[in-house]
Every structure is written in structure tokens, then in C-alpha cells.
Write a structure and sequence with these properties.
- The protein is mostly beta strands.
- The protein has helices at residues 6-10, 25-28, 70-75, 143-147; strands at 32-41, 44-56, 59-68, 79-89, 92-102, 110-115, 120-125, 128-133, 139-140, 158-164, 169-184, 187-195, 204-210, 216-223, 229-240.
- β7 (120-125) and β8 (128-133) form a beta hairpin.
């Protein structure tokens, strides 16, 4: 898939948060979410993303489908299906299995199996399978976005966390600013602003969490080192308590 879609799908969705939720968090979070996003570069839509989150007691299932549209689809009509499954704990989501599957570039498929008892995660990509140490609170790049539902961010100033995309395990650092706002096709909402510090030669990630809607990510922007911006904005948000 051309770069119009690739950065926002593979990088924006990898913005995770640590598992610092309160013991009451799991019972107070939504049981079912259906959401959709538009993905844009320079105001031109290049992809759509639809996602479903289902929590049943102490288990969760998240499925995300990204499809190229418009000119991007004419060049390469790729579809990416990502699934995360695991447990819901007092500290939020604990993934057990993660897969990312492409219809066309199948050699870029990835996966991860989490062995929390032995603190190991098995990564699976074109290079084969390998097992590495599993830090506490690690998320996959899909569960990471829904971990925001469980975090008390009102007084937070910074976030540090581990995340895997099935190929590698990285640590991320973000700054948190409260009392902000975000505008998306659904309207303007109060928000918490989460951003990675600016560093020369590195991409910058910005996320706006709607505080009146379970701290869910309503807008995300990645600015690459050359200044190109890739934006993901919420267009549908259906929630069930």
C-alpha cells in the first residue's frame, strides 16, 4: 500500500498507554463500541477504518478493518484486518493474541502471542517466530488505543509504555495536557491531548481523547520528519455501557 495509508494505519494505531487503571475501571467502561475513522493526507481521504470492541465479563475482542479508498484504492486496493483478544483486568486490557493480516502484501503479516505467566511474548513476521521478554503492561498496537478507556488521565503529565506490532517490542514516551478540545465530523468535544516530544528526524504523534466519551481517541495526527501530516478523524461512535 502506498505511503498515503501506511503511516496512519501502522503508526497511529500503535500509540499505546500503560496499564495504570484503577480497580473499578473495568466495570465502568463500555461493553460494546462500533467506531469508524477517515484517514486523510492534505485533506484528501485515502482510507477508512471500521472497528468493533466487545467486552464480555473478563474477556475482550477487538477487530479493525482498514480499506483504501479513492485514488489510493486505484493504485493498490489493500485491506488490512487486525484482531486483538485477551482479558480485562483491574489494570485494563491484557492482550493474549494479536494478528495483523493483509489481503495483498501477505508477506507483511504479523502476530504476537502473550505468555504472561512466564513473562514472554512470541513475535511472528516474515523473519519467522522468536520469543522475547514481556514487560508488564505491554499492549499490542490495537489494544493500545482501547486501553485509554481504563486510565485515570486527569492528573497525568506523562505516559511511558511498551507496545508490539508483532514484529518488534518498543517503548514509547508521551506528554499529557488536559482541558483541551477536539473537532471532528461529529462535532467539537472536550479533550485530553497526548503527544510525543518533538525530536529531529523522527515522526511526531498527536492524539485527542474525548473526555465526555470514555477518553476515546477522536482524532490522531502523525507528522513525519519531512512535514507531511497524516490525520485520522472519528466519523462514527456508537457506545453501549
Amino acid at each position: 500500500m502506498p505511503n498515503f495509508l501506511h503511516p496512519i494505519v501502522l503508526l497511529l494505531l500503535s500509540c499505546a498507554v500503560p496499564a495504570l487503571a484503577s480497580p473499578e475501571a473495568a466495570s465502568g467502561t463500555p461493553s460494546h463500541l462500533n467506531v469508524s475513522y477517515d484517514v486523510l493526507k492534505g485533506g484528501i481521504k485515502g482510507a477508512t477504518i471500521t472497528e468493533t470492541y466487545i467486552r464480555k465479563r473478563d474477556s475482550y475482542h477487538i477487530e479493525s478493518v482498514s480499506k483504501a479508498v479513492g485514488l489510493v484504492a486505484l493504485i493498490k486496493p489493500e485491506t488490512i484486518r487486525v484482531v486483538s483478544e485477551g482479558k480485562v483486568t483491574a489494570k485494563g486490557l491484557r492482550p493474549i493474541a494479536f494478528t495483523s493480516r493483509r489481503e495483498l502484501d501477505t508477506e507483511r503479516n504479523t502476530g504476537a502471542d502473550f505468555d504472561w505467566a512466564n513473562e514472554l511474548v512470541t513475535l511472528d513476521d516474515r523473519a519467522g517466530k522468536r520469543t522475547v521478554p514481556l514487560p508488564a503492561g505491554t499492549q499490542d498496537r490495537l489494544s493500545a488505543m482501547y486501553q485509554f478507556l481504563f486510565l485515570p488521565l486527569k492528573n497525568a503529565a506523562a505516559l511511558d509504555f511498551h507496545m508490539t506490532n508483532g514484529s518488534k517490542l518498543d517503548i514509547y514516551n508521551y506528554l499529557v495536557t488536559t482541558d483541551q478540545s477536539v473537532t471532528v465530523p461529529l462535532g467539537t468535544f472536550k479533550a485530553i491531548y497526548v503527544t510525543s516530544p518533538s525530536k529531529p528526524g523522527e515522526s511526531r504523534t498527536e492524539i485527542w481523547l474525548a473526555t465526555e466519551h470514555a477518553n476515546f481517541p477522536f482524532k490522531m495526527v502523525i507528522t513525519d520528519p519531512d512535514g507531511d501530516k497524516f490525520t485520522q478523524v472519528l466519523t462514527r461512535f456508537d457506545i453501549e455501557p
